[in-house]
Design a protein that fits this description.
118 residues; mainly alpha; 2 domains; 0% strand
């Protein structure tokens, strides 16, 4: 996963645990693609101050993921649900029993609900 996207995703998981200034600087930098200079103007601080907020925020996000692993768990669960959907589709193609097809469809719908809630 590309670093910029990775930090944006980590912000979704852990952003509320950062300071307001860190969260703001990271959002401007990673989500709004502003330069350090542009961010410094928005935040009324020096470019170095912006860089410090970004670097400390990145480190905290990476440390939290290392300790808690929420993103990793999310990705693992997503892959497992995708595999269940794939198996259900394969079973539907193989088995022509109407009862089996109904049960497989239930399995597929449950998997989709899980995925949409992640």
């Amino acid at each position: 996963m590309d670093k910029n996207f990775s930090i944006s995703v980590l912000m979704d998981f852990y952003g509320d645990l950062l300071t307001e200034k860190q969260r703001e600087a990271l959002d401007f930098y990673y989500n709004q693609d502003l330069s350090l200079f542009e961010i410094s103007q928005h935040m009324n601080i020096s470019r170095q101050g912006v860089r410090d907020f970004i670097k400390r925020g990145e480190k905290q996000l990476l440390d939290m993921e290392k300790s808690l692993g929420l993103l990793k768990r999310f990705e693992d669960l997503s892959e497992q649900v995708k595999e269940v959907c794939k198996i259900a589709e394969n079973m539907k193609k193989i088995n022509t029993s109407a009862v089996m097809a109904v049960e497989i469809e239930k399995l597929r719908k449950i998997s989709e609900r899980i995925m949409s809630s992640l």
